[in-house]
Specification:
This protein is an alpha+beta fold and about 400 residues long. It is about 20% helix and about 30% strand.
Length: about 400
């Protein structure tokens, strides 16, 4: 092992099994709280090793005018469609759920332009589906109704691709947007084992969601409220905004036992030059940068050179495959607001890396055990922790 600081060691190679833990199924938050902001907030002091249990709505009490809170303004689109698998002989088979997983661009519109197939008059899209009892090579197309079909389905590593098209007309970008929102359903995570309800349209979306393109919500922000925002502004805590569209890179499970053998799928991000300038000045003034969520953290650390360079004078539109695991030197983020994450995920490795970077007296496992003893609600609709 390699020593980082007094009494602080890290193994040279991290294993996926190091990030496994057991949790009771009834600890999963299947629904959001009745009112935003009423979930628990576990405030972790990395220097003293103390954990304070507060309410999310009181986040402002733990921040000051010397902090900049950075949030991800991505917006979730209705990525789940239900259709009928039609076989090679034209006979209708079973109903299948198709989960479109990758925007691959700053917006669905840009993705559609990039992926449009003029010969097929449709869009090549990546997706996941549970084809139980259906052989892939037996499918002629999947019929979603209203002349909307998915054809030329093929396997691509751990996902599928196909051409989404209309049988009676060309398919414009605007129609693609409208179709997802009208025909699709909210892409709740697979561990929320229930049908979507009307309230999910609102609650699986942050109050500041703006740019359409995510297949999962930046969950650390789901309990953020307008009243909290007003109190933060009143006390002088600045708020900055970035966009990272959540794709498979964030939510797909890691597969390889050696952590460093795993690769994340790329996810698109966009950051305004004015935000980069504000964060550059904040770092110069030694203000704390508090990231709301792992997606914000990955965006900020992906553009660390530009934030630290006073000469950046343009917006940044790019993609990141940044996979954060120990040891990782955080250059921008000083504090992290995040939910409790699924075992063996890249999100837990990021939290562990951040705690180790902060030379925390508490490990991620100790924090999780404490939280579950105190009846924490887990995952997307659940409680949060603030690591300072």
């Amino acid at each position: 092992p390699r020593q980082l600081a007094a009494g602080f060691f890290i193994k040279e190679s991290m294993n996926l099994s190091d990030y496994d833990y057991q949790f009771p199924q009834d600890a999963i938050a299947m629904y959001p709280p009745e009112k935003r902001g009423t979930t628990k907030l576990f405030v972790v002091n990395t220097q003293t090793g103390e954990i304070e249990i507060d309410q999310y709505e009181n986040l402002d009490k733990h921040l000051t005018a010397q902090d900049v809170l950075v949030r991800n303004i991505t917006k979730v689109f209705h990525a789940r469609l239900f259709g009928m698998a039609i076989n090679k002989t034209g006979q209708s088979g079973k109903q299948v759920e198709v989960f479109f997983t990758e925007p691959h661009a700053q917006s669905l519109e840009e993705y559609a332009r990039r992926q449009y197939d003029p010969k097929e008059k449709g869009y090549k899209l990546e997706f996941l589906t549970a084809l139980r009892g259906i052989r892939l090579d037996s499918i002629r197309y999947i019929d979603f109704g209203d002349n909307l079909r998915l054809k030329k389905i093929s396997k691509n590593n751990d996902s599928l691709t196909g051409i989404l098209y209309k049988t009676d007309s060309d398919f414009s970008v605007e129609e693609l947007f409208t179709m997802f929102e009208q025909k699709g359903k909210v892409p709740l995570p697979p561990y929320i084992k229930r049908s979507t309800v009307v309230s999910d349209d609102e609650r699986y979306q942050t109050i500041f969601a703006e740019k359409l393109g995510s297949v999962a919500a930046p969950t650390a922000s789901l309990n953020f409220t307008k009243t909290l925002e007003a109190r933060l502004a009143k006390q002088g805590t600045a708020i900055a905004e970035v966009t990272l569209h959540v794709g498979r890179g964030t939510f797909m499970p890691l597969r390889h036992e050696r952590i460093e053998d795993n690769i994340l799928h790329s996810e698109p991000y966009f950051v305004k030059n004015s935000t980069i300038t504000a964060l550059h000045l904040a770092k110069q003034d030694q203000k704390r940068i508090i990231a709301m969520g792992t997606t914000t953290t990955r965006t900020l650390e992906s553009i660390a050179p530009q934030i630290l360079d006073a000469n950046t004078s343009h917006d940044i539109l790019s993609e990141t495959k940044l996979f954060v695991y120990p040891p990782f030197r955080f250059k921008i983020v000083d504090g992290l607001l995040t939910n409790f994450h699924f075992p063996r995920s890249s999100l837990i490795t990021l939290v562990d890396a951040f705690l180790q970077y902060k030379r925390s007296k508490l490990s991620w496992r100790t924090i999780y055990e404490f939280a579950m003893k105190n009846e924490a609600r887990l995952f997307s609709y659940g409680d949060s922790m603030l690591i300072l």
